[in-house]
Structure formats: C-alpha cells, structure tokens
Amino acid sequence: MISLSKDRIDKFRNVMQQSKPDIAIILTHLDPDAIACAKVSVNICAHFKKNVSIFYAGGLYHPQNIAIWNKFALAEDFKSLDKIDDIKKYDTILLDSSSLNDSRLKGLAIKPIIIIDHHLTNEKLEESENTWFYIKSCGSAATLVVQLFLALELEFQQGDDISTLAVIALLTDADIKLLSKYVIPLDRDIYVILMKSADASRARDTFASVKDLNYLKLFKRAIDNMEQVEGVTFTNIGFIEDNEVGYDALLADELCAISGIKTIVVIATRKDYSTEIKVRTTDDKIELDSHIKERFGQENGGGRHGKGAARIPPPNKDDVPNTAKAREIFLNYRSQQILDKISKKISE
Ligand SMILES: [Mn+2]
User: Fold this and answer.
1) Is 1 part of a structural domain of the chain?
2) Residues 82, 169: one domain?
3) Confidence label for 304 from pLDDT (cuts 50, 70 and 90)
4) How are beta strands 51-56 and 22-27 bridged, if at all?
5) pLDDT over 90 (residue 14)
6) How many structural domains are present in the chain?
7) How does pLDDT run across 219-234, given as a tens digit for each residue?
8) Are 89 and 234 in the same domain?
9) How far is the CA of 174 from the centre of ligand 1 (A)?
10) What is the pLDDT of residues 262-301, one digit of tens each?
C-alpha cells in the first residue's frame, strides 16, 4: 500500500503537538463518509492527548444516515454547529469538505489546522508551517483518514465501531463493490485492511435496515408513476411528509441499480411546495453535477443540496394550491417543468 512519506507524517505530528488542547472537528454535512472520518479522527486526536468535539452542519436526511446514527449511538458525540460556544477556544479540523466559504458553515470563520478531503475545489488552500492539508481525489475521505491513522501506527480493534464505520463510508461514497469512477487503488487497499477488523454483519445490517414501511409506500408510488423519456426514467412520488425526507434519495439510489434504468430522476414535493429532485445515472460519461448546475442553478448538484440533487424553492404564498384539483395540476406542472429542464440540451 502507498503510505504517506515520513516527512508528511512528521509534519502532521508537529501540527498536532503544537495545536490548542481543544480540537473541534467540523463537518459541513452528515453522511457515512463524514461520520467515519470524524470518528477515526477522534482516535487520532486522543493519541495526541487532545480534547476533541465533533460539530456538524445540516441534518441527517437520508434514511441510511439515520440508521447509522442510531446503530452507532452517535448522538452522544456529535453536536450541531449551532451549539458551538466559542470557536476561538478551538483549533479546527475540516473533514470530507475543503471549502472554507461553504454556505453551510453559515459564515462561521474557520481557519482549520488540518483539512482532509477527496473533493477537489477551486479554492486555493495553501499549507503553512502550522497547517496540514491532504486533498486528493479518491473514492472517500475515510480512505485518506484511515491511511493517516495507519501511518501513525495506530491500530483497529477486532469488530470496533471505527473500522466498521469506515467500511460503511467506503461502500457508500466509493460505491458498493468500489466501482465508482473516482476509486483509486488506495481505496481498495484500505478497504481490504479495514475488513480484517470491521464487523461485516453490522455493516450489512446498516444497509438493510433503512427500508421500512414508509419506503415501501413511496417505492410503490415511484413504480406506479414511472415514465421513460428519451432514455431517462422519471418518476414523481408526489407529496412527502417531513419524516420521509431523504427517502427520495434512497429510491433514486435503489432504482438506478435496476437493470434497464440508466438515468433516474425522482421528484418529490414537500409540504411547503418546494420540490426535491434526485438524479442518479450509471453512465460514467455524464458529469451529472455540472449538468444539474447548468439547469437548476449553482447551489444545486453537489452544492448546498448535495450530490445528484436539485431543489426548486416553494412558490409565492398566493400561488400555493389549496384544492385537490389545483394540487394535482401543480404536481403535473412541476413534473413537466423538470422534464423540460432535464431533456434540454446544455447548448440551447
Ligand atoms: Mn465523502
């Protein structure tokens, strides 16, 4: 396995040793990758005898995140970023994200001493004597954090939470069976090492437990309302309750894995009449997020609304339908509007 050079590790040790006694790990989103990065990093910080707290922006949304949250009792360690008392008290570590201007930070000025991320951004982050940045395109940020953990000669215990969470992160971000186009040999090497200690049945359970009766109800709607337009499969699942938010993403993931479906668009409308759009494709040649940004605006597609996702804000109060008939027309109108936007060629 490719290891980090001795110089890089020495520098990491220095940065950690010189840091403040209190470290805040900042996550701009909660997903399996960010969660695993944070938990492995807690062990790294503990190795340097630091007090560490994890703060996150946003919410859990995707049912898989909720399953992980409950199964691994994460509520104990993870605090909402709104609860951060005095940011100056801490040195900060930014994981699975490297944007300091991320809108999800709500203007919180952070100067991380450590950044580990697998998304390349346009922001020019320059490492100084007191900072350590590791940004490299690969399947998951957990790969890079685990590589660092191992390079520091730390060890996983048989069946521990952190190796299990890292396996879940890899299987989610780097795609089941590590088939994502972003996967590099390092991801596979790390996966093999993790599987020696991870609790595979617990990892499997986490994937299986997300499908409940809500899922089944929405799945039926998705199947009933499915239509094919020029090789793209559309489905409008209609209104979703607040506790069903995120199921649209899960449905898109699942439907995209069905043979014969190449690109899937799942449309769902929330109580405030905003519309969530989730797009998944198996076509490696499509740069999905840039297409989504072109059509739905820059804050979509890997921006504020996540990978493969877009959102149409709620209509003006006066335009909110209040009869069943008007609601039906609204849903049809939104479907058509989205269908038009998606099938339109970028050059038009
Ligand atoms: Mn990630």
Assistant:
1) no
2) yes
3) low
4) parallel
5) yes
6) 2
7) 999 999 999 988 899 9
8) no
9) 8
10) 999 999 999 999 999 999 988 878 888 888 988 998 888 8
Q: Are residues 219 and 186 in the same domain?
A: no
Range of 142's domain? Answer: 6-207
Residue type, 29: H
Question: How far is ligand 1, taken at its centre, from the CA of residue 330, in Å?
Answer: 35
Distance 253 CA to ligand 1 centre (A): 16
Task: Enter the pTM of the model.
Answer: 0.80
Q: Ligand 1 centre and the CA of 324: distance in Å?
A: 41
- What residues sit around ligand 1, an ion, with C-beta below 5 angstroms? 33, 96, 141, 173
- Would residue 15 count as lying in a domain? yes
Decide if pLDDT at 115 tops 90. Answer: yes
Are 38 and 116 members of one domain?
Answer: yes
